[in-house]
Amino acid sequence: MGSYEVHAVWRDGGWDIDVPEVGAGRTTSLGRVRRAAHSLIAAATADSGDVSLVVKPFVGGIEDEVLIVKKEIEDLAVAQIRVAQHSRDLARTLREKGLSGADIAVVLGVSPQRVSQLKHT
C-alpha cells in the first residue's frame, strides 16, 4: 500500500491537483479530489486501489487559519467529554445529598430530562 500527499489548490473556480512525483490534474470540487488522485496514481504507478491519501487543500493563503479552527474543534470535543463526565459526577453527588431530579436540574441549569440522562449514563 502506497501513501501519497495530495495538494489541492483552489484556482479559477476549480481545484488544481498535484500528487508529487506522480502527476497533476484538475477537478471541480474538493469532494472529487480523492477520486482524481487515485486515477492519477493508478495511471502513473503500480499502486492501485489500496492507497493512503492525505489531501491538503490550499485556499488563498488561509491554511493557518483553517488549522487553528480544526484544533479548536478538536479541543471543543475534548472539553465536551470532560464536561459531560463532570456533570454526571456532580449530578450523582447532588442525588446522594438528597436533592430531587427537579432540584438538580435547577442547580445545574439543565432540564429535568437532562438530569435523567445524566443518571443513566
Task: Report on the architecture of this protein.
There is one protein chain. Helix content is 51%, strand content 22%. The chain is α+β, with helices and mostly antiparallel strands. Strands 3-2-1-4 form a 4-stranded mixed β-sheet, with helices on one face. The two termini are 41 Å apart.
Please identify the top-level CATH class of the largest domain. Alpha Beta
Q: What name is given to the CATH topology of the largest domain?
A: TTHA1013/TTHA0281-like
What percentage of amino acids are in beta strands? 15-25%
Rg: 24 Å
Distance between the termini: 41 Å
Strand order of the largest sheet: 3-2-1-4
- CATH architecture grouping of the largest domain: 2-Layer Sandwich
The residue-averaged pLDDT reads 92
Q: Could you give a short account of the major beta sheet?
A: 4 strands, mixed
Helix and strand element order: EEEHEHHH
E-strand count: 4
Features:
single chain; about 120 residues; alpha+beta; TTHA1013/TTHA0281-like; 2 domains; 4-stranded mixed beta sheet; about 20% strand
